[in-house]
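Deliverable D2.4 — example input (structure tokens):
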């Protein structure tokens, strides 16, 4: 059952989904195609603001004490401010997950070369694909790990 069309982000080629197979999390992604999802961790601006407010509160409260005891009082004031903001900090994650997007790459010749260039750039082994004219048996159309030579 095909329930999705996939467009190659490099060539624009569109292919209908293949047989649905949920055990690998790729649904009906056509065989040989690659899914790339970019995720990035970013500091939460709300969390940063909370830290700035806490710091400003401590500094402002410490200034109310005579200069000679400000250092001693700073610890006590810091504890009070930490306690005051504890609940808010617990409810505010330090990081946000930014998902740029998910793209799909087809398994056509020159696209695979570019994909392998990127794989090598980030320290991954290239993927070898056997083309139809190199077809040597039932499973020769399947990608195989170039390191192990397994098909």
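Example output (designed residues):
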């Amino acid at each position: 059952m095909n329930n999705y069309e996939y467009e190659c982000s490099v060539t624009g080629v569109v292919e209908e989904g293949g047989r649905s197979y949920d055990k690998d999390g790729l649904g009906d992604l056509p065989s040989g195609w690659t899914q790339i999802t970019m995720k990035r961790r970013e500091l939460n601006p709300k969390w940063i603001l909370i830290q700035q407010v806490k710091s400003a509160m401590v500094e402002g409260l410490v200034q109310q004490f005579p200069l000679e005891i400000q250092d001693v009082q700073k610890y006590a004031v810091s504890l009070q401010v930490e306690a005051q903001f504890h609940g808010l900090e617990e409810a505010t994650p330090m990081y946000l997950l930014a998902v740029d997007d998910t793209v799909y790459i087809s398994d056509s010749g020159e696209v695979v070369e570019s994909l392998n260039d990127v794989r090598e750039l980030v320290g991954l082994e290239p993927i070898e694909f056997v083309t139809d004219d190199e077809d040597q048996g039932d499973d020769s159309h399947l990608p195989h790990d170039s390191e192990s030579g397994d098909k």
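The radius of gyration is 27 Å.
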